[in-house]
Design brief:
Blueprint lengths: L26 H11 L4 E5 L2 E4 H17 L7 E5 L4 H12 L3 E4 L6 H11 L3 E5 H11 L7 E5 L10 H4 L11 E2 H7 L15 E8 L5 E7 H14 L8 E2 L7 H13 L4 E3 L5 H11 L3 E4 L1 H8 L14 E4 L6 H11 L3 E7 L4 E5 L19 E2 L4 E5 L12 E6 L11 H7 L5 E9 L5 E6 L4 E3 L2 E3 L1 H9 L4 E11 L3 E10 L7 H11 L8 E4 L13 H4 L2
Parallel strand pairs: 1-11, 3-4, 3-5, 4-8, 5-6, 6-7, 10-11, 12-13, 13-14, 24-25
Antiparallel strand pairs: 1-2, 8-9, 14-15, 15-16, 17-18, 18-19, 19-20, 21-22, 23-24
Helix pairs in contact: 2-3, 2-7, 4-5, 8-9, 11-12
């Protein structure tokens, strides 16, 4: 038995449960228990619109019935291509009621990305914003397995139509699509047949990039979802009389669990504001006075630096956590000084269905005196976090190695990718690819990343994908992409390019080339033209030399 199995961090739990029994047999049962507890309670707030738990139940019943009427069957996948709107939550619950699996897609995905995700997941239904379908989806869908396209508008479920977000936006109807409201209206009052979902059934697929750079669909099960929702509720002291502000994007694992799943379990109202726009978010905080949120520290920093911000804007918050991007001690102290609220750290990956480590609520994380790193917390209940060397064996406490996690939050594997599952989840233990250490008291610290992944404002970018897009430009001979420090984004994307003989281009042209083909957070902000890229004797490009 290693020191990690001895769980030295149990002393830090301070009365919190160290071991859990799951309270529900599926995330759908978790939702139904919340409805039964108080059907008239508010489930969702969206600008001036509200949806009660009874309404959410009825809307998702009708949508599930409509899906089944169009041939949707148990195990089928429904892809959601939306911003933070009520329809996201309605579709998630409806998919479960129809026995299916939701596929979470980043609304910033462009054609090549959307095409890959739809094809890899085998989704038969796509729910898209009308604007996104017009800009991206209509060219992609014909070459996929999608049989039914549902569209919806960000103007639904509210009447305010804030011009800072929706100026000039009008409703759009596209040939071959079905409006989700019309499908719901056609099946209003219908209840889908009972469905038996178990803890080991897949609740949703969330796509991540791994060691090969190919996006992989992490199979987040109902066990994963129920467990991590309970961890949030109990470790963060969340209560039904509070409310959640959805600062993280709902497609991201933080939004899926820290916002939606927690809202379904506790149950607490979830406040949505379409997408992150600092002034709009500040207005929503002032209007709705939420008590809990979790998001990237970069988002919080943007709010603190927004015109008109005042300490009172955060006065309603009782609990604030940060995840998705590293937080420095300076940022932690700056947040406390600006808001009067302590921001707590949590650390997890898509494959751990949100947190694997959590800072106990009520106390700041310690700072490692050697590296200056702020701890990302202690292992969550029922979770073993180990630090291993290159040989796969545990290293002594305090020494650096790769972070490996085992527990009920770790996914069953990657959709349709057994080799990647075996490589990254051997025996069900996740090899995180992050390098860190654990103190003798059980605090976990991250000091570096083993992978070359770039973390830009909490979004992960794989260099090879950007390099492949650059290579599509006729003037590019070779390209290498690295992450470089950025004051606002944490990291940003920088590219180094050598050109084909006899060709010409400019950095601006290459940036525009990538911007047209990649999500906004992925394209390089800087391109450097070089005669030759540094290489090993075997011809492998040395990214590490380009970072200096």
């Amino acid at each position: 038995m290693s020191a990690y199995d001895d769980r030295p961090w149990l002393a830090l739990y301070d009365g919190q449960p160290a071991d859990y029994t799951l309270e529900h047999d599926s995330a759908l049962d978790m939702f139904r228990a919340g409805v039964a507890r108080d059907p008239s309670a508010i489930a969702l707030r969206y600008f001036d619109g509200t949806v009660t738990r009874r309404q959410l139940d009825e809307l998702s019943d009708a949508l599930a019935s409509g899906l089944l009427a169009h041939g949707f069957a148990a195990g089928d996948r429904l892809a959601v291509y939306l911003q933070n709107v009520p329809q996201f939550v309605i579709a998630m619950v409806a998919t479960w009621k129809a026995g299916g699996v939701m596929v979470s897609i980043n609304p910033m995905s462009r054609q090549r990305e959307l095409s890959y995700l739809l094809k890899d997941s085998g989704a038969t239904v796509l729910l898209s914003l009308e604007t996104l379908y017009d800009e991206v989806g209509r060219e992609v869908v014909p070459d996929t397995d999608v049989r039914l396209v549902l569209t919806t508008s960000e103007l639904d479920f509210q009447t305010r139509a804030d011009e800072r977000l929706f100026k000039g936006l009008t409703r759009q109807r596209h040939e071959g699509t079905t409006d989700i409201n019309e499908l719901i209206s056609a099946h209003r009052g219908q209840v889908p047949p009972p469905v038996q979902l178990g803890l080991d059934d897949v609740a949703f697929l969330t796509y991540t990039s791994g060691t090969t750079g190919v996006p992989k669909g992490a199979m987040n099960t109902h066990r994963n979802v129920v467990f991590t929702a309970q961890v949030y509720r109990d470790w963060m002291g969340l209560r039904p009389d509070g409310s959640i502000f959805g600062v993280a994007p709902l497609f991201h694992i933080t939004g899926l669990i820290g916002h939606i799943a927690v809202s379904l379990l506790t149950p607490m109202p979830l406040v949505l504001a379409y997408r992150f726009e600092p002034q709009v978010v500040l207005d929503a905080l002032r209007e709705h006075r939420p008590t809990f949120t979790i998001g990237a520290i970069t988002a919080f920093s943007a709010l603190l630096n927004a015109p008109g911000f005042s300490k009172d804007d955060f006065s309603s918050f009782e609990v604030v956590y940060s995840g998705g991007a590293a937080i420095s001690p300076t940022a932690e102290q700056g947040f406390l000084a600006a808001t009067g609220r302590q921001v707590h750290n949590a650390y997890g990956l898509t494959e751990t269905t949100s947190p694997m480590t959590v800072t106990p609520f009520g106390a700041p994380s310690p700072v490692d005196p050697t590296s200056g790193a702020l701890s990302v917390g202690v292992p969550a209940p029922n979770t073993i976090v180990r630090i291993v060397g290159d040989d796969g064996n545990d290293v002594p406490l305090g020494e650096v190695g790769e972070i490996v996690a085992e527990g009920p939050q770790v996914v069953a594997g990657y959709w349709g990718k057994p080799d990647e599952t075996a490589a990254n989840l051997p025996g069900g233990a996740l090899k995180s690819g992050d390098v860190g250490f654990m103190s003798p008291e059980g605090w976990v610290f991250i000091v570096d990343r083993k992978k070359d992944m770039i973390n830009a404002s909490g979004y992960k970018v794989w260099p090879r994908e950007v390099e492949d897009v650059l290579a599509e430009h006729p003037a590019v001979r070779e390209a290498a992409v690295v992450g470089v420090p950025d004051e606002k984004r944490g990291e940003t994307v920088k590219a180094f390019v050598s050109l084909r003989p006899g060709t010409q281009t400019t950095p601006e042209e290459l940036i525009a080339h990538c911007k047209e083909r990649l999500a906004a957070y992925k394209y390089p902000r800087t391109v450097v033209l070089m005669e030759e890229l540094p290489k090993t004797v075997t011809g492998k490009i040395l990214r590490r030399e380009l970072r200096t």
